[in-house]
């Protein structure tokens, strides 16, 4: 049974996040979908250039479980539109399943997996900036987008926070 946490300032934390049920939201970070790989153990000339090529690559795939990872769920939903054969083909190879997309970068960095699917750009960039030989691969053709964070989109009925001045043309 779940219980509400006993926090003195709970309203101060959650109230700014509350929005009307019919409020629009907009992603304020996003990343193109791709796969992660280890540059130290991969030949750039042999990297897959299509989703079908990726699914047929020899090696180990690290895949996040869509039942426990929002990024993986978004990826699965997008791939059903982009290439419905990708996921069944991927399942024919050696696959490690992680409960979190965050673990994929580590599995690829340590050599336990050859490809992380989906590749999470922010995680790969952070690891690469720390000296890990990780990079992203982007198949040709259609790719999806993973949104990370969303923010309420101000409407005429909602007050715009001072830090959220948006202009559109």
TrEMBL record:
Keywords, alphabetical: Signal
Protein name per Swiss-Prot or TrEMBL: Uncharacterized protein
Highest taxon, organism lineage: Bacteria
Pfam families: SBP_bac_11
């Amino acid at each position: 049974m779940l219980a509400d946490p006993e926090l003195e300032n709970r309203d101060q934390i959650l109230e700014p996040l509350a929005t009307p049920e019919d409020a629009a939201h907009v992603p304020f970070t996003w990343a193109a979908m791709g796969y992660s790989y280890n540059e130290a153990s991969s030949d750039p000339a042999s990297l897959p250039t299509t989703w079908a090529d990726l699914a047929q690559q020899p090696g180990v795939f690290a895949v996040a479980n869509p039942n426990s990872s929002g990024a993986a769920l978004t990826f699965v939903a997008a791939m059903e539109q982009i290439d419905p054969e990708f996921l069944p083909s991927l399942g024919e190879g050696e696959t490690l399943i992680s409960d979190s997309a965050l673990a994929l970068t580590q599995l690829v960095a340590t050599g336990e997996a050859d490809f992380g699917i989906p590749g999470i750009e922010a995680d790969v960039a952070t690891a690469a900036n720390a000296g890990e030989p990780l990079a992203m691969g982007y198949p040709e053709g259609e790719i999806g987008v993973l949104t990370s964070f969303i923010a309420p989109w101000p409407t005429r009925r909602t007050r715009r926070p001072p830090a959220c001045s948006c202009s559109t043309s």
